[in-house]
Design goal:
- This protein is mainly α.
- Helix 1 packs antiparallel against helix 2.
- It is elongated.
- The two termini are 58 Å apart.
Length: 150
């Protein structure tokens, strides 16, 4: 990294970096509005590193990006050709009619029960079996899931 001398002129990229430090300090509450405005105005009038340094002397060093702890790897990746062991599914596999259609089975069963209660309430005069419109997709889902390997 080059050593800068106070009499050397700086670039627009350097000016932008210092403006960013001033904005960060203002956003953090380290500078109030008048102080921030004053330093920003001075930033656009100075030309050398020596004039630039007093604008940021009392501010903390530049923040660098750090990977959030949540996404940092806790253990190293396996060696090439070394395959990690798969974790077994902690949930027991469902068997019977509940396993056929997943959560949709409950919806179908509730509708069949509602149809049955309506028929009982009408004194045995059963209405058209409208749950069939739910049974058709349920059957497709159930039959599609039968061949799936678990």
């Amino acid at each position: 990294m080059p050593q800068y001398q106070p009499y050397q002129r700086f670039t627009e990229a350097d000016r932008d970096k210092i403006a960013g430090r001033l904005r960060d300090a203002f956003a953090d509450g380290r500078l109030d509005q008048p102080e921030f405005s004053s330093r920003l105005d001075q930033l656009y009038t100075v030309q050398t590193y020596g004039e630039l340094e007093p604008l940021v002397r009392d501010l903390p060093p530049v923040r660098t990006y750090q990977t959030p702890a949540v996404v940092q790897d806790s253990k190293p990746a396996p060696a090439p050709g070394d395959f990690p062991e798969r974790k077994k599914d902690a949930r027991p596999h469902r068997h019977g009619i509940g396993a056929l259609g997943g959560g949709f089975t409950g919806v179908v069963m509730i509708n069949v029960v509602i149809w049955f209660v309506i028929g009982l309430g009408n004194g045995g005069h059963w209405p058209h079996f409208w749950p069939v419109w739910l049974l058709i997709p349920w059957a497709i889902i159930a039959l599609g899931g039968l061949g799936r390997r678990r």
